[in-house]
Specification:
Layout lengths: L1 H9 L5 E5 L9 E3 L4 E5 L5 E10 L9 E12 L8 E8 L8 E8 L6 E14 L5 E5 L3 E10 H20 L3 H8 L9
Antiparallel strand pairs: 1-7, 2-10, 3-8, 4-7, 4-10, 5-6, 5-8, 8-9
């Protein structure tokens, strides 16, 4: 699980994962091990993305073939002003086929214009029904654990520098084929 999250966090792409289980990965920076909400202080500026983790218990959410996991986020700036609410969501297909807990991981990349100092998150399952008439349900009990991992601009810059250093190191290393040739030089004679 940790390797999957690490790959999830290292890429500059949008990733969505579903894994059977009920644990929020240890490397997720902020976690709630018994609920669907959490808040924390943003200790660095230049937030450029978030990775989310929601542990879904299907016993708390019977029926329906499709639902969305919604994470409603609110940010507070230095002056105490609230941002507008941001909704980050992940669509789940075949909800009724899940018989055990599942961990859902996804990320969102964005460019915040403001530097925020505090963040709050509320996860829920959003279900829409068209029978007998249209109605929406927001189920907060179906998310039994959650986590958020902020991604800052500095994280990406450090990762890019590390990646370029690793590429330089790789270029300095001889290829396995060259190493083999150096260890076993051919003993051919020139027949001129």
């Amino acid at each position: 699980m940790e390797d999957v999250l690490e790959m999830h966090l290292l890429k500059h792409k949008i990733v969505k994962l579903c894994i059977a289980g009920d644990e929020v990965p240890q490397t997720m920076r902020y976690k709630n091990q018994s609920g669907s909400s959490l808040s924390f202080i943003l200790d660095r500026p230049h937030l450029i993305g978030l990775s989310f983790c929601a542990v879904f218990d299907p016993k708390n959410c019977p029926g329906d073939d499709m639902a969305d996991i919604i994470c409603e986020a609110q940010f507070i700036d230095k002056s105490g002003d609230n941002s507008k609410n941001f909704d980050f969501y992940l669509t789940i297909l075949k909800v009724g086929l899940s018989y055990s807990e599942h961990v859902f991981l996804w990320n969102e990349l964005f460019d915040m214009e403001h530097s925020f100092v505090e963040a709050s998150f509320q996860f829920c399952i959003h279900k829409v029904s068209f029978k007998p008439a249209y109605h929406e349900d927001f189920d907060y009990e179906a998310i039994i654990k959650c986590g958020v991992h902020p991604v800052f601009r500095d994280d990406c810059l450090c990762r890019d520098k590390k990646r370029s250093r690793n590429q330089e190191d790789e270029e300095d290393k001889p290829s396995p084929q060259r190493l083999k040739q150096e260890q076993n030089p051919s003993h051919t004679q020139d027949k001129s």
